[in-house]
Amino acid sequence: MKKRLLCLAMTLILLIAATACGSSGGSPMEVADSAASSADTGWTETAKQDAASGTNGALSAVRANAKLILRAELMLESQEFTKTSESIDTLTAQYGGYFEQNGVSGDVGNRYADYTVRVPQAKFEEFLSAVGEQCHVVSKSQSAEDIADQYTDVETRLATLRTKHERLLALLDKAATMEDIISLETALSDTEYQIESLTGQLRSYDSLVDFATVQLSVREVQALSATAEGNSFGAQVRQAAASGLNGLTAFCRGLVLTVVTIWPLLLVLGGAGAAAWQILKYRRRKQAEQDAALQQKNTDEK
Prior knowledge:
By secondary structure, this protein is an alpha+beta fold. It is built from nine helices and five strands. A five-stranded mixed β-sheet has the order 2-3-5-1-4. A hairpin with a 2-residue loop joins strand 2 and strand 3. Helix 2 (28-53) runs antiparallel to helix 6, helix 4 (81-94) packs antiparallel against helix 5 and helix 6 (148-174) packs antiparallel against helix 7 (178-210). The radius of gyration is 42 Å and the shape is elongated.
């Protein structure tokens, strides 16, 4: 009995020793990668278990962790271009936003402005409403993109790389050969580069989520475009009538402005036309007198 117990004990010791030797084998790089992969696998398995069980409210967690990138694009018209530009500046500051880009082009009376405004996500809807009250909105579009999956993926990769970085540092302290030291330092440099890249990507995501992006295009006009107040046939008829009236008004205004612009040329043409008319009248009168004299001469000869 004692011999059997002794044999069993020796067998267990040999198995433990073999297992320890097997786990400590391989290069320092393989050990570091194995540790990082283990950390990543553990996170993935935990997430899968939570989603499968449903006991931790996976759907609620997804909604709570949603990261939305909000965007909007507005086409605006203004008959008071300078005032509208000042209003946009004031509203942007009032709602805690800033201009990512802005520019104005064209001559007075026909100017265009493009703005890229970043406003806090919590003030997004309020800012759009305020712009709509201050300006004439011709068209408006909004979109929302949830990047929670991409964000979580980058966070997970970053955590894995940081674990790998710590493991590489620990192995570097214990490295005994120059070959291992060079290999570990190269791996550390590559890992640090990847960590910086992913950290920058997360900062970019945070900026897009925290501050919504609003594209504003402002056009200076003499008459505002008609916009439909609803989708009914009557609303469309009213819009068409208003558009036609605005078109006629714009045509008349353009015609008057054209006449005023070229008045010197019209004056010269008018003077030349009057002179030509007087010359033509004089020639006709002289021709009539000659014809009358010739007719009188013929009569006297008879």
